[in-house]
Amino acid sequence: MIKSKLPLRLGVGIILLNKENKVFVGKRKDNPTDTWQMPQGGVDEGENFVDAMKRELTEETSIKNIKIIKELQELTIYELPRYLVGKIWKGKYKGQKQKWFIVRFLGKDNEIDINTQRPEFIEWRWLNIDNLPQVIVPFKKKVYEELLPKIKSSINSR
Fold first, then answer.
1. What local confidence, expressed as pLDDT, does residue 3 receive?
2. Are 62 and 20 in contact, with CB atoms under 8 Å apart?
């Protein structure tokens, strides 16, 4: 199928901040190069954004102890590069349309466990927010650049 005819997958993204306002990033199992991403995933049929966000965060990191700081109003969009269309999401989507949440991790680092039932990350770390666009795969860089000022304004308004 031609890329432009494919729909966008509806998803959520989680900007997880620790008490030092560093952001959680994981190195993906299916792309173990030195690229990292924040937790994210699809919205299931009949699921609302908040429930999808909490489920994805738990599925990827085992984290449940959070407080929602802000739900970003607008959806962000990214499209897959041509070489990945057909390989990701069983070829059903050309990219994602995501609702992002800024959340505070209220627990301790030893509660984080990426060795979940279906692990997506092989490594994780806390990262300075300003470094986000430099560590992401190139096709998601624009999304991370758009999120950066929204993260900073949410932190500074607290």
1. 52
2. no
Better-predicted residue by pLDDT, 20 or 85: 20
Q: Looking at the predicted structure, is the pLDDT value of residue 71 above 50? A: yes
Nearest-angstrom CA–CA distance, 85 and 9? 12
DSSP state of 17: E
CATH code linked to domain 3-156: 3.90.79.10
Residues 100-122 have pLDDT tens digits of 999 999 999 999 999 999 899 99
Distances (CA, A) of 81 to 78, 87, 110: 10, 11, 36
Q: For residue 146, what is the enclosing H or E element?
A: helix 141-156
Provide the H-helix boundaries in 16-140: 49-61, 132-135
Please give the angle made by the CA atoms of 7, 8 and 13, to the nearest 5 degrees.
165
Which of 33, 53, 35, 40 is CA-nearest to residue 133? 35
DSSP annotation string for 117-129? SS--EEEEEEE-G
Q: Which two tokens stand for residue 92?
A: 């059903």
Q: What are the tokens at 77?
A: 């969009």
